[in-house]
Structures are given as structure tokens and as C-alpha cells.
## 1
Amino acid sequence: MHGLLEILRGAQTQTGGVFVLSALLIIGFVLIARRIGPESPLAPHILPFAGIMIVVPATMFLGITKVIDSNAVSAILASIVAYFFASRTPQPPSN
């Protein structure tokens, strides 16, 4: 219980909040990804989503600690969004 209180107390800072949010994103992704079987239509997309789930929290953490500036954070997030939309192939209309 003492460890949980320390995490909650540390989450009130910017860096701690980003750390807790990052941990929740990664844990949530792992829990969801474990349920997706090979026959699922989402199976081919697990690896790109795994990369995004690592890059986005790392970018948030590096941005909040001022290791990289806000322009670099914006560029990284924009490239992730561009990749996400460019990698989706349109389905041909069914007749």
C-alpha cells in the first residue's frame, strides 16, 4: 500500500503523470494484445500498434522532461498519425 501511495503522490507532477499514463497505455495494450488470436482481423496490425505504444509514451516523456523540444514532439506525433492513415488500404466496394 505504501508503494501505491508513493506512485499517486508522484503522479501529481508532470513527469510522474506522464509516467503513470505511459504505464497505463502499455499495460492496457499488452492486456488487449494478448487476447487477439491469429485468426483475428486485427492480428496483422499488432506489431505497428506495439511500436506506437512504445514511441508515444517515450515521446511524451522526452517532451515533458525537455530532452526534446515541442517542435520535435509535434513532428514525431504527426509522423505517427501520417503512418496510421497511410497504412490503411481502402477496401474495394463489394458488388
Note: The helical segments are 2-10, 14-35, 46-64, 70-86.
## 2
Amino acid sequence: MSENLNSNNIDNDDFNLINEDIDYKDLINKLNEIKSTIALLEKTIFK
């Protein structure tokens, strides 16, 4: 019985790591969008 619990914990840890990886990639994408927006605003302001 405890073997099943350990197996479930490992699966949950893997699932959490996958979710964290997705969150990290989403954050990087958002930061890149912000970077692009700032660059565009700088070009507009300093014309």
C-alpha cells in the first residue's frame, strides 16, 4: 500500500514540475512582449 502512495507522490511531483515549467515559459513570453512594447515606445518617443 505504501508503494502506491510513493508512486502517486512521484507522479504529483512530476506534474507540479511540468506546471512550473509551463508557468516559467509563460512568464518569459510575457516579459518578451513587454520588452518589445518598451522598445516600440522608445522609438516612438525619441523620434
Note: The chain has a mean pLDDT of 80.
## 3
Amino acid sequence: MKINLKQQQLIDELLFKIKEKYPEVVLKDLQASPDDPEDIWINIIADMDEEREIELRAYSAELTTEILSDYGYALSIMPENPNAIYV
């Protein structure tokens, strides 16, 4: 996966904004979406309760939608919660 300079700048700014509001978030890695290699998935570790994770998802969706609208780059925040219990 190739990331250009502008994409890296937008990813850095996005993570900065998210970490300002959710300081417990940690960057895990970046990967291309399996459906569209132009869509960059920003995998993060989000050790938080379910309500806070829902807020994080909504907040990051707003930010990534702005980036897509303003710059044409599809970025997606993909939280992974190590304490989540999936049934």
C-alpha cells in the first residue's frame, strides 16, 4: 500500500484530533481495504466501554467524511477493543 504525502498528513491530523478527544486510543497499523485498495483503514486499539466506543465511531465518521469531501481520500477508523465481549 502506497500512501502519498497528503494522505499521511491527513492521517496524522485525523489521529491527532481523535487522540485529543480519546487519549486512550493507540494506532495499531494502516491497511488497504479489501474491497477498495484506495480506501485506507486506520486500525486503532480503543480500550474503552461500549458507549464511548460508539461516540468514537460517530466522531471519527464525521472527520473522515470531511476528509473525503474536501480531499477525495477515503480513510476509515477501525477500532479494535481488546475488552469487548462478542456474543
Note: Strands lie at 26-32, 40-45, 75-80.
